[in-house]
């Protein structure tokens, strides 16, 4: 029986990946956790969890020697572009060091694991109109320390493939949404505000940043299904985009969320939510992954928003009690 190790298994994406693998493979699933494990409590009896700080090379070695995984989904990272602007070095140090520790340990323990290196659509950064839709050959023009850290992770995967024959498959997922997504991301920020207004915890106004930028939004459950396909069927050393291949404005996202409630709300622009160098339009070209694995998103956008809003209603309900 194969064993898969998910670093950051208790995070937003890691918990959905664990659910997908438990429901669709016969693999044993292990994962590393750092901090709260609320997102995987319901799976606890079916997982082997390792509380560990992955910035410590010895700790990474201990986990990989204990599990000797056939597959490694490396999801653990500082995921927020906003936080990276406030503390660039923490993001760079954390994301690069942890990726390096995983790859170095695979080499020095003689593992033949297939390793999923998770980059980001943010790597493409300042996309020009002529670049759309964005394929894997589009130039990388990072606009945040987070994006730069993801480029470093991405290219570490390539370097270890070329230098050490590590079976690293690289992915660049675009924005993903769904239940368990925390604040700091536009869809979750809107959903949490709507839930708080419904519960009477804030006045009936939603604070927003730029509404006319467009983004490529995909349900997290489709993203993790794509991760599985990429790691099991992808070509080592190659890189694959994952996205909906459809652009939606932030305004359309907000209007769709408001349509799921009976609220009368005001929209208030908050200067603190405006981002420097915000890219006007983003839409992915995912033909490379589709031709390799047949993957394409399946979950309707409205379902993703409904599940995200219901999650935040539950979170707000717990706080209100």
Can you walk me through this structure?
The chain is an alpha/beta fold. It folds into two domains: 3-177 and 218-242, Rossmann fold (3-Layer(aba) Sandwich); 186-215 and 247-280 and 299-320, Alpha-Beta Complex (UDP-galactose 4-epimerase, domain 1), CATH 3.90.25. 42% of the residues lie in helices and 17% in strands. It is built from ten helices and 13 strands. The protein has helices at 12-24, 57-67, 81-86, 88-108, 145-164, 186-198, 220-233, 250-258, 287-293, 301-320, and strands spanning 3-7, 28-33, 48-51, 71-74, 114-118, 167-173, 176-177, 205-208, 214-216, 218-219, 239-242, 247-249, 266-269. The strands form four sheets. It has a seven-stranded parallel beta sheet, with helices on both faces. Strands 7-10 form a two-stranded parallel ribbon. Helix 1 links the parallel strand 1 and strand 2. The radius of gyration is 19 Å and the shape is globular. The N and C termini lie far apart (44 Å).
């Amino acid at each position: 029986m194969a064993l898969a190790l998910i670093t950051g298994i208790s995070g937003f994406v890691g918990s959905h990946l664990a659910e997908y693998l438990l429901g669709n493979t016969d693999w044993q699933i292990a994962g590393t956790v750092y901090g709260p494990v609320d997102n995987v409590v319901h799976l606890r009896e079916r997982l082997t969890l390792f509380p560990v700080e992955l910035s410590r090379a010895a700790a990474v070695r201990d986990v990989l020697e204990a599990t000797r995984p056939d597959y490694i989904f490396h999801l653990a990272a500082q995921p927020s572009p906003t936080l990276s602007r406030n503390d660039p070095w923490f993001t760079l140090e954390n994301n690069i060091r942890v990726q390096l520790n995983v790859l170095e340990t695979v080499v020095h323990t003689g593992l033949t694991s297939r390793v999923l290196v998770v980059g980001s659509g943010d790597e493409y950064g300042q996309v020009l109109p002529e670049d759309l839709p964005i394929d894997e050959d589009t130039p990388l023009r990072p606009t945040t320390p987070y994006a730069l850290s993801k480029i470093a992770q991405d290219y570490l995967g390539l370097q270890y493939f070329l230098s050490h024959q590590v079976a690293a498959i690289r992915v660049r997922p675009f924005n993903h949404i769904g239940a368990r997504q925390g604040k700091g991301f536009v869809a979750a920020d809107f959903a949490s505000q709507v839930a708080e207004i419904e519960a009477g915890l804030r006045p009936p106004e939603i604070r927003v940043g730029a509404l006319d930028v467009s983004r490529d939004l995909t349900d997290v459950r489709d993203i993790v299904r794509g991760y599985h396909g990429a790691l099991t069927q992808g070509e080592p050393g190659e890189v694959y985009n994952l996205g909906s291949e459809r652009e939606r404005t932030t305004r359309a996202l907000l209007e769709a969320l408001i349509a799921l409630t009976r609220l009368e709300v005001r929209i208030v622009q908050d200067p603190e939510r405006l981002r420097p160098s915000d890219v006007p339009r983003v839409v992915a070209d995912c033909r490379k992954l589709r031709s390799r694995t047949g993957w394409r998103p399946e979950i309707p956008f409205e379902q993703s928003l409904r599940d995200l809003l219901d999650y935040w209603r539950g979170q707000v309900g717990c706080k209100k009690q």
